[in-house]
Amino acid sequence: MEKKNLDWGNLGFGYMTTDYRYVANYKDGKWDDGALVTDPTVTLNECAGVFQYSQSCFEGLKAYTTEDGHIVCFRPDLNASRMKDSCERLEMPVFPEDRFVDAVEQVVKANAAWVPPFGSGATLYIRPYMIATNAVIGVKPADEYQFRILVTPVGPYFKGGAKPITIRVSDFDRAAPHGTGHIKAGLNYAMSLHAIVDAHAQGYAENMYLDPATRTYVEETGGANFIFITKDGTFVTPKSDSILPSITRRSLMVVAEKYLHMPVEHRPVKFSEVPDFAECGLCGTAAVISPIGKVVDHGKEICFPSGMEEMGPYTKKLRETLTGIQMGEIEGPEGWVHKIM
Ligand code: PLP
Ligand code: COI
């Protein structure tokens, strides 16, 4: 299989049309067999549930080329199970978890020429998603749905890759208490768009959202969970019912404890504690681990000792170990690295 002729080392985090996508349709209470198709266009009725009441959810994972030339992805079973949770909360039909993993395999295999080579710094981003497709005008769930998976090669989510970023504390909330912050609903991201445009306009790379009820605890950003390192090397990460259970964060908790022998705390994190941490980072499929050098809270700067030039030593070690496992250079726990071909 010949790879596409792309400048792999200079890709941004953007969409490009690849050769195949996976499509399955839900009608009369059941999913059809699903298939790979070449047409990237979706044609729907003007009144489709996704257009009217935003009934949609999605997932994100990546495929990697390992040093020995295999194509693998990382813990796809957890994406399947998180999508199940999203569907249940949004009154959408669950796409069976084993079929989800099988569909990921099919679409990655079909687009193998688009999977960036080992060592290029790029990866194949895999975006499974589901939308309500039949017409609804009264406020209720649709009866028909489409599950799709598109793939696109990507580079780093934040410009500059591993260089520390500056973020600000947001005055906007992205999720309500007892709302949908814990699932991957498209509507959560619609909620965050004004806040991110405003943050970018003011020179910040992302928003730090605080808990919507009291604005005293750290939640997450628009697309990643937080990790903090204390001055004595403890890994601390926020626990909240209104943030997305990041697969990267759950994996890093294991990496920190089992590989790097760090104490790990998963607990509510007060915003007032933030100035005491030695290192801070964002973690997620897209973000991998992106170091944060500075948090600005309404003009007041919180600067981490790790600075704005380099990522801190613990963040660096966590990133190297996690990506080492993902790329097959370091032996991961059983079931983490899922071989596709
Ligand atoms: N939080 C939000 C809001 C996200 O969109 C994402 C990305 O998927 C994450 C956290 C990180 O989750 P994961 O590590 O599963 O990609
Ligand atoms: C991911 O990391 O997969 C996400 O969905 C985050 C998104 C902001 C790109």
TrEMBL record:
Q: Gene3D superfamilies per the record? A: 3.30.470.10, D-amino Acid Aminotransferase, subunit A, domain 2 (3.20.10.10)
What's a BP term from Gene Ontology annotated to this protein?
A: L-leucine biosynthetic process
Keyword Nucleotidyltransferase belongs to the record: no
Annotated metabolic or biological route of this protein: Amino-acid biosynthesis; L-isoleucine biosynthesis; L-isoleucine from 2-oxobutanoate: step 4/4; Amino-acid biosynthesis; L-valine biosynthesis; L-valine from pyruvate: step 4/4; Amino-acid biosynthesis; L-leucine biosynthesis; L-leucine from 3-methyl-2-oxobutanoate: step 4/4
Signal peptide coordinates: none
Please verify whether the record's keywords include Nucleotidyltransferase: no
- The record lists the membrane-crossing segments as none
Q: Name one GO molecular function term.
A: branched-chain-amino-acid transaminase activity
Quote the Pfam families the UniProt record gives. Aminotran_4
Q: What is its EC number?
A: 2.6.1.42
Q: What chemistry does it catalyse, as a reaction equation?
A: L-isoleucine + 2-oxoglutarate = (S)-3-methyl-2-oxopentanoate + L-glutamate; L-valine + 2-oxoglutarate = 3-methyl-2-oxobutanoate + L-glutamate; L-leucine + 2-oxoglutarate = 4-methyl-2-oxopentanoate + L-glutamate
Cofactor names from the entry are: pyridoxal 5'-phosphate
Residues that bear N6-(pyridoxal phosphate)lysine? 184
Stored InterPro entries: Aminotrans_IV (IPR001544), Aminotransferase-like (IPR036038), B_amino_transII (IPR005786), BCAT-like_C (IPR043132), BCAT-like_N (IPR043131), BCAT_family (IPR033939)
Q: Which CDD domains match?
A: BCAT_beta_family
- What keywords are annotated for this sequence in UniProt? Aminotransferase, Pyridoxal phosphate, Transferase
Q: State the family named in the UniProt similarity comment for this chain.
A: Belongs to the class-IV pyridoxal-phosphate-dependent aminotransferase family.
Protein name in the entry: branched-chain-amino-acid transaminase
Organism for this UniProt entry: Roseburia faecis
